[in-house]
Amino acid sequence: MRILITDVVLLPELGWPWPLESSADHEVFADIGVEDGVIISIQEHGDGECARSGQREAQQGRWDRIIKGRGRLALPGLINAHTHLGMSVLRGYGDDLPLMVWLREKMWPMEDQLTPEDVYWASSMAIGEMLRGGVTTCGDMYFHMDAAAQAVCETGIRASLSRGIQGLGGSGLKGLEEAVRFCQEWHHEAEGRITTMLGPHAPFTCPPDFLRKVVKWAENLAVPLHIHVAETADEVTQIRELYGTTPLGMLAEYGALELPVMAVHCVHFTQDDVDLAREKDVRIVHCPGSNMKLGSGIAPLPELLDAGLKVGLGTDSAASNNKLDLWEEMRFASLIHKAQRQDATAIPGKVSLNLATSGGGETLFLEKVGKLLPGWAADLILVEKEGLHWQPSCNVATSVVYAGQRSDVSLTMVAGRVLYEDGKLLTIDEEKVCHEVNSTAGRLGLIS
Ligand SMILES: [Zn+2]
Hints:
Elements: E1 2-10, E2 28-35, E3 38-44, H1 53-59, E4 65-68, E5 73-76, E6 78-83, H2 99-111, H3 116-132, E7 135-142, H4 145-155, E8 158-165, H5 172-186, E9 194-200, H6 208-221, E10 225-229, H7 233-243, H8 247-253, E11 261-265, H9 271-280, E12 283-286, H10 288-293, H11 301-306, E13 311-313, H12 326-341, H13 349-363, E14 380-383, H14 396-402, E15 409-414, E16 417-421, E17 424-425, H15 430-443
Parallel strand pairs: 1-4, 6-7, 7-8, 8-9, 10-11, 11-12, 12-13
Antiparallel strand pairs: 1-2, 2-3, 5-14, 14-15, 15-16, 16-17
Helix pairs in contact: 3-4, 3-15, 5-6, 12-13, 13-14
The site of zinc ion has 5 residues, from loops.
């Protein structure tokens, strides 16, 4: 399908047509052409009045559909690099508890009772929430992953999927076998929208013997690892007592860092960890909202970026956040580091916007996802900036981060297909999804 999106506003800060370092703050009006899931053209007009309207009208017969941008802001789709879609059914259950208590006493016992069907509906609901808020790609780690993959297929979102596995207190080798089979069956499925990783949960749940097996399989399958690392100070203490090193150091010791690795959280990284991550090109997911809510701490994002590491943003699950809202994560990513360092320049708004888009694509090891450029995936959103909270739009790029909100998204496109438009999800029956998720919550005794 060939789609032309006319008269949108683009931000030079996001890499087109100027380099990322550009300090230009002005807006650019353009038409975006999309075909076969890819951006095929970006035609600049120069101002709000379409200078080439005659030429464009003449071209309209080429397009199956023309979407009128009406001066809306076009952004690359936001990328939620780390979440657990199926956990959305546990939103609000176990709020205000520290991580280990929350995990061991609340989440794990309840998760044991979830069926594939529960995960399918919770994943569909989570995807609907994200599409409404302009998220076009997510990195998911959970179980009953065939059900999650089915939800990804049907809803049209792009996703990197991992079957979460643990050597201790979890599914063990049976889980690993399932994870391997899942990668073999689903990698590059759904017209290439699905990619897979192996998902060892964390160093504290994956002892060396188990980790070695996971590493071997990841090598065989040629897939990256998706793992939580150094989320809490307790984890660092525990790993140091057991192995005499940091969580990242432990991964290095057992060969994991010789593979592509996406490390989530990295809250309690030492400078040696930062250096090691840089040396091994470890990709980092920063989850400021979840880290704050669980009282885990604040990751050293300025040091990670200064070291040149590739960083994306994630919400973590709806049970620990409790939103799957990248607009909020962008805002947090800028604000908490400014406050912690007492430095208003610590993480500028434009940096957070890049982390939520192209940073996420790099972190998930996706090619040509996360920028509005010809030849890149047609994953994009249109954002209304007419609301009072946007005026007077002196700086649109920083307004996205400091004033924008997910309800400003009016259209979400993934791989050239419109999935959300003018308040309606086009691939998800919201009423049905809410009914099914609430039925599960009722069965589990989470609601009366
Ligand atoms: Zn997580």
